[in-house]
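re the bet — no i am not wrong, look at it urself. input seq straight from the record:
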Amino acid sequence: MVETPSPPVAAGDEVGHVEVKGIAFIDPDERHGRPFELFTLWFTSNLSYLYILFGGLLILFGLSLIQAIAVVLIGNLFYFLVGAIATTGPAFGTSTVNISRVMYGSVGNRIFGAGLTWLLIVCFEAINLSIGALAGFALLADAGIEVTTFAEVLVLLVVAGGTFTLSILGHATIIRATAIFAAIMAVGAVVLFGFVLGHAQYDYQPHSGGASLATVFIGLTLIASGPLTWVNVPADYARYLPRNASRWAILGWTTLGGYLSSSFLAIVGVLAGSAVDMTDPQTSMKAIMPGWFYPVFLVLIVVGTCFNNAAGIYSSGLALQAIGVKARRSRTVLLDCIIGGALTAYALFVSDFLTTLNSFLVLAEVWLAPYAGVFLAYLIIHWTRDRTTPSAEQYGRLTNVEKIVRPGVVAIVVGSVCAFLFANTAYWHGPFSVVLDGADLSPYVGILVGGGVYYLLDRLAGQRKYTPGATPPASARAEPSSDPARVEA
């Protein structure tokens, strides 16, 4: 039997070694891997406790079981956006927020692409580390160990250490680790699902008699927030794939991986919400599982949080490079680890800063939805009009772009403002949301307006395109000392 040779591994992107490449272009001879690896990456990274919490919140909102499950299945369709954006990875051979330079310009992207991405991921880092640490505290308490401040600090260091190690080692190690743990995490989730099925109240009816349409939209927006938080990073994990990797395979495996795990856990949360109070699922769900499985459940929370966070922190280091920080990827990731770790410690031990972070992240969709809309419009333009997605070589490896690309900047500003007016959170009730009885339509408005404005402006004005060796106009030239795309590692 003739064995199929394994794909080559790029020098500097090896398992167990610190990845060398940052946002620099991945040359053809450095490409490796297959699209299926994106399935295990997104499947494992989204086996997160947050989705159980989201499912439980739908019940607390007053939705029935059928309504809540339908909301989960529909809201997570936003993972299609994540898959679509991932297809640009092999074409451009660089990170998502570096690719968005062609939509916003080298300077505009530092604000609307890389800048806001970095801020968002660091805030998410603090929230996820806090969730993992709290599960670790509960694990100690369940084992009969006194949870002192010293013990809490040790738990936080262990959780952070595991997360930061994966992030600093980089792409190859994250891909391999998620592939190994995918089956283990899936088995644990299925066992949890079995216990929940045994206690779920299938005749459950909300006390209010049923949720209004406005409440259903609030639930859809909550579920959609999961995939939307990934729209600014998916190409980071596809950029090492060969240039001729199937675009449809990349889209399909990425979408399916995120959709299956997040939907499954959210439905677990929905069913659990019919049996116990989901205000604090980490504690209340103990009542619907045998004593031996509760520590396993807590370990799953910790491990899932580590993978979810590692994927994000890895991209935050690339975002810093795209902003213009002149440092190796491993050093920018380390800087983000320090900042995120400090925020987590402050949130856990000093103040209720976590509530403030959560409020900020609820409004993050106001920017993320238009960002996804602009990206999708860009893809539609090139898939339908140009019949191809331009590669980094066609843009002079992303150095020959204008400082400000007006269609993108105008589109994301207009889209964000419109989304803000339709948003409904604990601290902000948009005027159009109030008119609609509290319905939160911000992600849908943001995507449609952001994408629509970009498409129209691009068709009217046309976006300048440069070929290798072409000399850009003086207004578009970037100084070598300030061009983040020139950072090689």
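see?? Residues 1-6, 463-489 have pLDDT under 50 and may be disordered. told u. also The domain at 28-364 is CATH 1.10.4160.10 (Hydantoin permease). so pay up
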